[in-house]
Amino acid sequence: MSHTLVLNSDGSPLSLLPLSVVLWQDAIRIIYTGSVTILHEYENWIVRAPSWQTHVPAVLMTTRYIKVSRLVGFSAEMVHLRDGYRCQYCGEQFPSDRLTLDHVKPKSKGGKLTFDNVVSACSPCNCRRGDDESIRPRTIPYRPTYMQLVARRRRMPVTVPHESWIPYIGWEPSLVTVDPPEGEPGLFLAKSEKRASSELVMQLLRTA
Fold first, then answer.
1. Residues 60-89: pLDDT tens digits?
2. Which of 189, 48, 119 is nearest to 199 (CA)?
3. Which value, in Å, is the radius of gyration of the alpha carbons in the chain?
4. Which of 32, 51, 146, 190 has the lowest CB atom count within 10 Å?
5. Model confidence at 25, in pLDDT bands (50, 70, 90)?
6. Topology of domain 76-144, per CATH?
7. pTM value?
8. Tally of CB atoms within 10 A around 156
9. What is the pLDDT of residues 160-176, one digit of tens each?
10. C-alpha distances in angstroms, 168 versus 44, 90, 154?
């Protein structure tokens, strides 16, 4: 995860797919816009400048409610999450980067890249199936709802940087690992993922 969880004014995360988190630099920046209040801070993490210092916030809440779209956009990650990161032919579970997308109705026969025609497949199964429509996936593909995907995600382990996140994100505590930042704080997501998540939250706040 990144450093700071951002909640809507009703106490729920602005987003769960991905989780609405920002880098500590962005967290401090939006504090000074007056659009959020601080709920929790890192006790031993202080940022200093010549004329001021502040604790890095762990959880922020917007000062007014932001209406957020719950439409699920098509992506490989959402397909893999829907399918529980399991190949829909051999049934084995894989990391996301070892899964491919397989067209149930092959592209060569007019099959489209949509939720209701695509399943997760490991590379060997995808190659073995080819365009053979007699080989059927274990489950029929479908368009998932936002809450269906959230429910699936919440059944998987998650790592957070501060224990104050736990009451807000909705995971069973037994599935949550708290891993406080060390060294350069916040090395929980790849840099591109951290930036994408921060940009999502910053966009929501700008358009509120």
1. 999 999 998 888 999 999 999 999 999 999
2. 189
3. 20
4. 51
5. confident
6. DNA Binding (I), subunit A (1.10.30)
7. 0.80
8. 11
9. 999 999 999 999 999 99
10. 22, 36, 12
| Of 15, 69, 70, 66, nearest in space to 208 by CA | 66
Which residue, 18, 30, 35, 70, is CA-closest to 192? 18
- Using alpha carbons, list the distances in angstroms from residue 47 to 23, 25, 28, 125: 13, 10, 9, 51
Nearest to 37 by CA among 45, 47, 27: 27
Domain boundaries, the chain: 4-68+157-207, 76-144
- 37-47 residues labelled b (16+ CB within 10 A) or e (exposed): ebebbbeebee
Q: Classify 166 as helix, strand or coil.
A: helix
Sign of dihedral through CA atoms 61, 201, 27, 22? positive
The least confident of 2-11, 148-157, 179-188, 191-200 is 191-200
> pLDDT band at residue 204, thresholds of 50, 70 and 90?
low
Query: Do the Cβ atoms of 80 and 49 come closer than 8 Å?
Result: no
Name the H helices within 5-70: 24-31
pLDDT bucket at 183, cuts 50 / 70 / 90: low
**Is it the case that residue 127 has pLDDT exceeding 90?**
yes
Residue 111, CA distances (Å) to 2, 58, 104, 115 in order: 38, 46, 7, 11
Q: In this structure, are residues 8 and 61 in contact, taking their beta carbons and an 8 Å threshold? A: yes
